[in-house]
Write a structure and sequence with these properties.
This protein is mainly β. Helix content is about 5%, strand content about 50%.
Length: about 850
């Protein structure tokens, strides 16, 4: 259950206290704000970025679905403009977010082989994939070729955006057709063979039809070995106004990526010899130690890996305004992401059967003679038993994610009882069909080949292959001599989910528009049908191969679940400068445990969250200084933590946290890693903090500056236990480690209530982007920019006492810069830009990856 805190009580008290002057009529004695005497008019559903200049934008549709001024809303919203995207050289939404404090796009849950344009982020301590395109959930990669504005809405947003938004969402607004013909051509070159060309043309086909046709192609290598990527896309938009006050838009996207997928030698997949933890990169940084790499750019795999992805989306919207006070908006979005990848998973493995005279040992010595003899005179002394080698497996997977979304909204504005009312009612539908096709090893009869770590059939090594740790040749996809086993497809539909929502939002403005409220209620209903396997016990005994005796259940169906969410916000604007606001909101997310049950045998109820927030927005000197500051408190409960899923592990892996209401040990908790166990655990967490962003536009002549900072404290709130299997005197035993044993920066365990680092969330962040433009004189048209990003230390994963996987990602300072020059050449508007990243050439290991070295991108843009 969510507990009450001091901050929560203060927030609630602030809400009530702010309303007391309203009821008492005190505000009438204050100087009224300027008010338009015209009839109160309903805002539009759409927003255009045409005419937007500089880094500061005032309006958004992301907060309420209506085009409204950010300062008036009791909702924290950051806006990233097209000019800022261009100046920083961002080519994806992820790159556009790099100077947003409190939002981390580099999270350790991201794995090699992901779509390079895909956007995953951690905001206010919570991981989210909720990237929206014009308010609809976006599948697959992004590119800024069609992005006009990026909005970051902080905090739970279930009211508008449904499930899965505890820390916030990112919504990008697409560029729309313009009323005059405009063309833009751009070429970019950069470090490591980066080349890109793009073209964007827009204008009116007729008085009623407008079109926009952006397209691009890019190719690149990277600073590490074996990466080769080609990416291209097109995103046409057609806008049609058949009648007065009616607008129809049809937007499409088609992005394609072809790339290799090199493995990082210090990736989380690279296990230490005890099979329990990661290699310590401080002891073995890649230049010495028992594992040595020829260079920082070295990768084990790459030439024979690949990832092919295709992202397609079609969005249609119809908006009609019946009058100045009533309008409707209809939207339909179909998107599909298809991917096909082949990767090599590399680990360090002990192969004790090389010492055996069994058939398995004789066969493996014949296949891998180099592994039978000591590889290094110091190597075998590093361990007391066995021989070690690089073990690698080739994996292939295909995935198709198809999402269908629909939305119907109606907005109405009216004046009654000396109040201005705005109502927004909506219905949403969201269906996601995720279809996975894993590829497994099969024999000549197409029968599955299952290889265990304790195999005695002589097949050891068919699925798991080996290479000397001193062999730095890249891994190649080719069969071993005499093997007749191949990767063949095995279709499995993973899951289908349905979600429907009904919501009503009410806004009011009164007391000369000094006070504004926003309140709403949303009712969501969702259902999940899932096809996967898990292994509930039929026997509590382990077999000779340490595998649980169980049965397969091919279909898991979750009964329809429904939940209501609410939101209430109040803002007070005493003068032109300040706005004070308070907000409380709730959120939910369905169980994502892959069909696993908690100890009671049921699929977990949905996650639920509650937030309380107070803040201020300011606008000084006619907008030359503007910004916002928020203090927030978010509680989340019923968080399901699934056990380790299917994988080829030599020993059982950690099995997750225990349900606090269940016994500390249940035989179902123990399962071989490559099985699919049938239990999940539950926990609660809390995130508290502060974030702020301020703009300085010509406060000092010719300077544009954005400064943002954040503080976050994320905590696991309940005392649960971590069960894992270890080895003691040659026998498997079970250890129980308290999850309260956190560590400080030096690795010293801390009591539960003491200060500690956040799980993959930095406690402090600071971002700065400063641009100076020469507007006259000899250097007219020249601009110079400097960017600074500072991130505090954070945990790469939760830390348990004596757990070798514990890792601190150190503090990181990144400095970037840009030089731009804009002038008219033969009647053409030309813009040349040089962007420089990692000016200090930082090469530190952060987590499991080296920092990319210094790089550049040089672009030339022509508008005509």
């Amino acid at each position: 259950m969510i507990r009450t805190s001091c901050l929560r009580r203060r927030c609630v008290a602030w809400l009530y206290a702010a309303g007391i002057p309203l009821l008492a009529g005190v505000v009438h004695a204050q100087t009224p704000l300027p008010v338009d005497d015209d009839i109160f008019i309903l805002p539009d559903f759409t927003i255009t970025t045409e005419g937007q200049e500089g880094y500061r934008a005032t309006n958004t549709v992301s907060g309420t679905r209506l085009n409204q001024n950010v300062k008036e809303l009791p909702i924290p919203v950051d806006i990233i403009t097209e000019d800022f995207i261009r100046d920083t050289g961002a080519l994806t939404v992820t790159e556009a977010l790099q100077f947003t404090a409190g939002l981390e796009t580099e999270i350790t849950s991201q794995q090699p082989g992901e779509n390079p344009g895909a956007t995953g982020f951690r905001l206010r301590g919570f991981v989210s994939q909720a990237v929206l395109r014009n308010g609809f959930r976006r599948e697959g990669g992004t590119d800024t070729i069609n992005v006009g504005q990026v909005d970051v809405i902080r905090g739970p947003n279930a009211l508008l955006y449904g499930i899965g938004n505890f820390g916030g969402v990112v919504n990008y607004v697409t560029k729309q057709p313009l009323s005059t013909w405009t063309r833009q051509a751009q070429v970019i070159t950069g470090s490591w063979g980066f080349y890109r060309g793009s073209f964007d043309v827009t204008g009116p086909l007729t008085d009623q039809i407008g079109i926009r046709l952006p397209m691009f192609y890019q190719t690149r290598n990277d600073w590490f070995d074996h990466l080769k990527e080609d990416r291209w896309g097109i995103a046409p938009i057609l806008a049609f106004e058949p009648w007065e006050n009616t607008r129809i838009t049809i937007e499409t996207e088609y992005f394609r990526t072809e790339s290799t997928v090199p493995e990082d030698p210090i990736s989380p997949a690279f296990r230490a010899p005890d099979a329990l933890g990661f290699i310590d990169t401080e002891l073995h940084p890649g230049t010495d130690g028992f594992l040595s790499y020829p260079s920082r750019s070295f990768r084990y795999a790459g030439p024979d890996t690949y990832r092919h992805s295709r992202d397609v989306g079609v969005l249609g919207q119809v908006t009609h305004r019946f009058s100045d006070t009533f309008s409707i908006n209809l939207g339909y979005y179909w998107s599909q992401t298809r991917s096909d990848s082949r990767t090599a998973g590399v680990s360090l493995s002990q192969i004790p059967e090389l010492l055996s005279e069994s058939a398995t040992g004789q066969r493996n010595r014949a296949l891998y003679p180099w592994a039978y003899n000591p590889l290094d005179p110091n190597f075998d002394a590093w361990s007391e038993e066995g021989f070690y080698a690089l073990q690698y497996n080739w994996n292939r997977g295909q995935e198709k994610r198809t999402r269908t979304q629909a939305r119907i909204e109606a907005a109405y504005a009216a004046e009654a009882f000396n109040l201005e009312h705005t109502f927004l009612a909506g219905i949403t539908y969201d269906k996601l069909d995720n279809y996975n096709i894993p590829w497994g090893f099969r024999d000549a009869n197409r029968e599955p080949v299952s290889i265990s770590a304790n195999d005695t059939t002589g097949l050891q090594g068919v699925r798991a292959r080996y290479q000397s740790i001193h062999n730095h040749d890249p891994l190649r996809f080719e069969p071993e001599p005499g093997q007749d086993f191949h990767l063949l497809a095995d279709p499995i539909r993973n899951f289908i989910s349905w979600a429907g929502g009904y919501y009503l939002i009410h806004q009011t403005a009164f007391a000369d528009r000094r006070f504004r409220t926003i309140s709403g209620l949303r009712y969501d209903k969702y259902q999940i049908a899932r096809e996967s396997r898990y292994t509930p016990l039929e026997s509590q005994e382990l077999t000779g191969t340490n595998e649980l005796v169980g049965r397969a259940k091919p279909h898991v169906h979750q009964n329809p679940t429904s939940k209501a969410n609410y939101s209430f916000g109040l803002s007070y604007t005493p003068n032109r400068v300040w706005t004070l606001f308070a907000l409380t909101a709730s959120a939910l997310d369905p169980s994502t445990t892959g069909g696993q049950r908690i100890a009671t045998g049921f699929v977990p109820d949905p996650q639920s969250g509650q937030s309380y927030e107070i803040g201020t927005k300011a606008d000084f000197l006619d907008g030359r200084i503007s910004g916002a500051l928020s203090i927030y408190h978010i509680d989340r409960e019923n968080v399901a933590v699934p056990q380790s899923q299917a994988g080829n592990h030599p020993v059982p892996l950690p099995q997750g946290l225990s349900d606090p209401e269940s016994p500390f040990f249940d035989p179902d908790w123990v399962a071989q890693g490559r099985a699919e166990p049938g239990r999940a655990s539950l926990r609660e967490d809390r995130s508290q903090g502060l974030d702020t962003q301020f703009f300085f536009i010509d406060f000092i002549p010719n300077f544009e500056t954005i400064v943002s900072a954040s503080y976050n404290r994320y905590r696991i709130r309940d005392h649960q236990f971590f069960m894992y299997q270890g080895k003691q005197d040659g026998e498997f035993v079970f250890r129980q480690v308290s999850a309260t044993q956190w560590r400080d920066e030096t690795g010293t365990p801390l009591p539960w209530n003491d200060d500690r680092l956040n799980n993959d969330t930095p406690k402090y962040t600071f971002r700065l982007w400063n641009k100076y433009t020469f507007r006259d004189g000899t250097f007219r048209g020249l601009d110079l920019s400097l960017g600074l990003s500072w991130t505090d230390a954070r945990e790469a994963m939760f830390a348990f006492e004596d757990d070798p996987s514990y890792k601190i990602i150190p503090r990181r300072t990144s400095v970037s810069g840009a030089v731009g020059y804009r002038r008219t050449i033969r009647g053409l508007d030309c813009n040349f830009r040089l962007n420089l990243n990692n000016l200090t050439n930082d090469r530190t290991v952060y987590g499991y990856n080296y920092s990319p070295p210094r790089s550049f991108r040089l672009s030339a843009t022509v508008n005509f």
